Amino acid sequence: MSFLILTDSAANIPSKLLREKRIEQISLCYTMRGEVTRCDDLDAFDGKAYFDALRDKEIVSTSLVNPSEFKERFEPMLQSGEDVLYIGLSSGVSGTLQAAKLAANELAEERGSSSNKIYIHDSLGASLGEGMQAFRAAELRDSGYSCEETAAILNAECQHVIQVFTVGDLKHLHRTGRLSGLSALIGSTLHVNALLKGDEKGQIVSFGKTIGRKRAISALAEVYAKKHDPSRNQLVCIAHCDCEKEAQGLASKIREIDKPDDILIVCYEPVTGSHVGPDTLALFFIGDER
Question: What CATH number is attached to the domain comprising 54?
């Protein structure tokens, strides 16, 4: 069976992989220095320049995809005669998924008894925590599963997508309202590094802290050691905000624990990257429930 897969640019999927896996993308936007930019091509994104600007205290604002934009994107996809599966940025950190639902409901009312449908999946994730689920959807589609079956499988599996990270400075999450006020004080004193994760509701919460960056990175690897499924060959994903050397170091630690099929390392895309901030290092894999 066949269907169309749509995700958003917050999924952090390199353009080459979007093409290879036949995943379509709708782009979120950010504004810097008065200029609005769409995140259309991650391969062309200059992460170093962008995160250097944030280090220099440049202010970035972001915007979700609105219902009319989703409707414009969904309509031609439905007209192809295929079902559509949208895999979206966590509802715990963004209103983008709700905008997709509004557009899908409006189109369903307009189309009446049309046989093909839009299925909306809340990834409860961001960056490659979302992107890994788009990869899984492509795998299921190519194995002959229907859109409805794939949506159900993703819903059952998404609590097993582990998302853990550490940041350079909690002020970015605090400024954009993604973390509670008191927690934003951690990390501004005594070289304390917060350990963060996406929880079962897709919200960002703290699960620990370390003294020093190296210990924080080792703590991420320790989560993998404790929670990954050694019986499952899998892709491990790492995203970073212009700290590639540390990302490579984390990848080496992962290989020492239990060599996965592959490790994908990417620079954070600019929208979610602006919320977590420079020097964020994130690890994504399949394991025990969050």
Answer: 3.40.50.10170
